[in-house]
Design a protein that fits this description.
GO terms for molecular function: ATP binding; ATP hydrolysis activity. The chain is α/β, with parallel strands linked by helices. The chain contains eight helices and ten strands.
């Protein structure tokens, strides 16, 4: 039986350094990515893509399936090599800065045989923390994601939202400068998805890491982001880079009543629906 937990509330207190002042811009310059079709002919997945992301900002990428949203994250992470252009972090090739990146996927990648504590400990191990510091960080993070008492539970004993909280805890334990999030809440029901969005905003407000968030949900993108980048397919390219000039902190239920919010959602939809 899965266990469900109430959404997070209250202040954030995990003492992880923000380091926003030391953050560095992300640049995609003339990115082109191709793959071979069934006949071995090259097909352009992304072509001539340029994008600049300032440190500490929350940027969502939306667009139809197959437009290259997830591929773009993988280029930055060094998992996909572009045929043209380059991805840079602070002016340096992104491929040499992997320590700065943390990846979170739609399906959690928790170790099924490991406990909540052991899954989070993967992050402290990757961060190279000394044993005493790792134990302290683990205790802080378990409290932070409100999973006290569940440290010895395994993923199959948790709800989808709780598993994604563990994934967030592991990400925080690793202390990356940049969060790459590929539809992390896409498999969750709407209520849990909304709760996880609120929790992510709390984390971002506290630590102000750079977030690149891929989603198909336009309202989710507008609610969370400083900017929403719209991509078109065949080949993948940017057709809109929309600044979201809405006050923070944000509440999804309140925002839905704001005419400016509705206008932003409509503008983004129009660009997605345009051939």
């Amino acid at each position: 039986m899965s266990i469900h937990l109430q959404p997070l509330s209250g202040p954030l207190s995990v003492p992880i350094p923000t380091g926003v002042e030391e953050g560095e811009a992300i640049s995609f310059r003339n990115i082109g990515v191709s793959y071979a079709d069934a006949r071995g002919e090259p097909v352009a997945a992304i072509a001539g893509l340029d994008l600049q992301i300032e440190p500490g900002t929350f940027v969502s990428i939306v667009g139809p399936s197959g437009c290259g949203k997830s591929t773009l994250l993988r280029v930055l992470a060094g998992l996909v090599t572009p045929v043209t252009g380059e991805a840079l972090i602070g002016g340096q090739p992104a491929a040499g800065t992997a320590r700065r990146l943390g990846f979170m996927f739609q399906r959690d990648t928790l170790l099924p045989w490991a406990t909540v504590a052991d899954n989070i400990r993967v992050g402290t191990d990757l961060a190279g923390l000394a044993p005493a510091a790792a134990r302290a960080r683990l205790a802080e993070l378990v409290e932070f994601i409100r999973l006290q008492g569940f440290e010895n539970h395994r993923p199959h004993q948790l709800s989808g939202g709780m598993r994604q909280r563990v994934s967030l805890g592991r990400l925080l334990a690793y202390e990356p400068d940049i969060y790459l999030m590929d539809e992390p809440f896409g498999a969750l029901d709407s209520q849990t998805k909304s709760a996880m969005g609120r929790e992510l905003l709390r984390i971002w407000a506290k630590f102000r890491r750079t977030v690149i968030f891929v989603t198909h949900d336009i309202e989710e993108a507008v609610t969370l982001s400083d900017r929403v980048v719209v991509m078109a397919a065949r080949p993948g390219r940017i057709v809109l880079d929309q600044r979201i000039d809405l006050p923070r902190p944000r509440d999804a239920r309140t925002l839905r009543k704001d005419p400016k919010y509705r206008d932003l959602v409509d503008v983004i939809w129009q660009h997605i629906e345009t051939p």
